Amino acid sequence: MALGYVRPARPDDAGEIARIQLTTWRVAYRRLLPGHVLDRLDEAWLGRRWSAAIEAAPSDRHRVLVAVEQAEQSYLVGFAASGPPDEQALAPDEPADALGAGTVAVTDLLVEPRWGRRGHGSRLLAASVDLWREDGFDTAIAWVYDGDPASRKFLGQTGWEPDGAARALDVDDMLVPQLRLHVSLAP
Fold first, then answer.
1. Cα 116–Cα 117–Cα 120 angle in degrees, nearest 5
2. What is the CATH number of the domain that holds 164?
3. pLDDT score of 1
4. At what angle do helices 14-28 and 43-55 cross, to 10 degrees?
5. Distance separating alpha carbons of residues 88 and 101, to the nearest angstrom
6. CA angle in degrees (0–180, nearest 5) for 21-150-15
7. Which stretches in the chain have pLDDT values below 50?
8. Which residues 6+ apart lie within 8 Å of 44 measured at CB?
9. What does the pLDDT read at residue 70?
10. Which of 104, 114, 129, 146 is most open to solvent, judged by the fewest CB atoms within 10 Å of its CB?
11. pTM of the entire structure?
């Protein structure tokens, strides 16, 4: 029987987080994003960005967590990243202070598809919620692709709902619609 747990990311996890991100995007978003864009993503570049996020986070309320499956050996299988919202969390034309100091923004919550349906996403989300509450956040937000029913369903089952904000990302001249979900962190 396999065991799973969540822990803070370590600097030596950055390369594996990048691999998981790239693999997951190429599988989960292949119908949403242009294939040539996904093909051109550079795993080493992503790894450097994750290394910076882990080693030089903008604040102590910015977090990168990893999900681990442990059987005969341990495997990193997913990750979550979050922190106080920046301009990337805002909807178009939304004022900079619209989200408030009590809001945390989820930037990534991914489990590699081959490790899906084993509770890793739920463990990542539960561990994140515990840390967000410790950090004094009262609301969480996350942008999801409108054409990603799996993420919408996963978050929706835990109380996340659209907050009315929408945007479209310009991905190589293709507009990809997103909607913002939110949830109260009240116990």
1. 70
2. 3.40.630.30
3. 46
4. 130
5. 15
6. 10
7. 1
8. 18
9. 86
10. 114
11. 0.94
Distance from C-alpha of 9 to C-alpha of 12, rounded to nearest angstrom:
8
Reading the block at residue 102, the tokens are 């009590």
The distance of Cα 108 from the centroid of its chain, to the nearest Å, equals 1
Give CA–CA dist 155/121, Å, rounded: 10
Hey, what are 143's tokens?
A: 């942008």
Are 82 and 99 contacting, i.e. CB atoms less than 8 angstroms apart?
Answer: no
Q: Give CA–CA dist 185/187, Å, rounded.
A: 6
pLDDT digits (tens, 9 = 90+) for 60-82: 999 999 999 987 788 999 999 99
- Domain ranges, residue 104: 3-184
Read off the amino acid at residue 109.
L
Q: What pLDDT score does 49 carry?
A: 97
Which residues touch 73 (CB under 8 Å, ≥6 apart)?
A: none
> Is residue 10 a contact partner of residue 79, using CB atoms and an 8 Å limit?
no
Question: What tokens were used for 96?
Answer: 């900079």
Domain count, the chain: 1
pLDDT recorded at residue 116: 78
Please give the full DSSP string across 17-83, using - where no structure is assigned. Answer: HHHHHHHHHHHHTTTTS-HHHHHH--HHHHHHHHHHHHHS-SSTT-EEEEEEEESSSEEEEEEEEEE
